[in-house]
Amino acid sequence: MDSILRHFDALTNHGLKIIPLRENSKIPLCSNWNKKWDHNCARIKIKKYPNSNIGLLLGEIIDVEGDSDEANKIIIDLINDYPHPIYRSYKSIHHLFLTPDSSLRHFRWNNIEFRGYGHQSVLPPSQAHGVDYKWLKSFKFPVPSMPDELLSFLNSKRKLKSSRKLKTGHIRLRCFSCRKINFLHRKRYDLELCAFKLLGKNWQCHDCRNVDLRNKCRIIRANGYSEEAFAKHIS
pLDDT tens, 108-156? Predict the structure, then answer.
């Protein structure tokens, strides 16, 4: 392996926050590595352990990682020939950009991973699992901003994923007819479920139902959710 100290000096001179890792490992040698980076402390550790790996403290820089051939193709199609640092680890392709969002810590969409604050990425020429990490293209520092196409992809997927998160008190359910996923407050769902039960039907979304639930909901509110109330109005 080339001199890790030489790579440390070259990368830190370009403004990257490099942290020492255990030999053939992703585990940092320094405690509190993701809270306070200290150049002198990191360099002393690497001088003491010359066979250590090196990692990049993320935050100001984001690592976009493709973990499959399909994921890598999507990233490359979005980036095209945009110049940036790109390297191969033992299982993935990594792309480095300036972070577009200071609040971004981690986001994953299928096999594409965006990692930022609180994380680190192992850099070449480290070794892991018997494989050398390697830069794939020549490039010039500093690390560039994320290209617009990739940023739009990230924002759209974050927005989509956020819309799928359950709000407090809500549940995720599937319409019996169209099979689409819906989100409904638990109290509203309990009321509608009982109304459909009175009708002898399974729950349906608003687009599929062809019945008016208002009368049945009034009955349920007046009589509660007891089996006796169901039996009274079903019979």
Answer: 998 999 999 989 999 999 998 889 999 998 888 899 999 999 999 999 9
Shared-domain flag, residues 50 and 95:
yes
Q: What is the 3-state secondary structure (H, E, C) of 99-149?
A: CCCCCCCEEEECCEEEECCCCEEEECCCEECCEECEECCCCCCCCCECCHH
Cβ atoms within 10 Å of 106's Cβ, excluding its own: 12
Which residue's entry shows tokens 């255990």? 22
| Number of separate domains in the chain | 2
Do 82 and 186 share a domain, yes or no?
no
Q: Which of 49, 176, 150, 41 minimizes the C-alpha distance to 95?
A: 150
Q: Give the range among 23-37, 73-87, 212-226 with minimum mean pLDDT.
A: 212-226
Percent helix, percent strand, percent coil in the chain, to nearest 5:
35, 25, 45
Residues 48 and 157 in one domain: yes
- CA 189: distance to chain centroid? 30
Per-residue pLDDT of 9-48, as tens digits, reads: 999 999 999 999 999 999 999 888 888 899 999 999 999 9
Question: In Å, what is the CA distance from 126 to each residue of 3, 25, 219?
Answer: 10, 9, 69
The pTM for the full model equals 0.69
Distance CA 161, CA 183 (A): 14
Instruction: Determine how many CB atoms are found less than 10 A away from the CB of residue 61.
Output: 20
What is the C-alpha to C-alpha distance for residues 40 and 234, in angstroms, rounded to an integer?
78
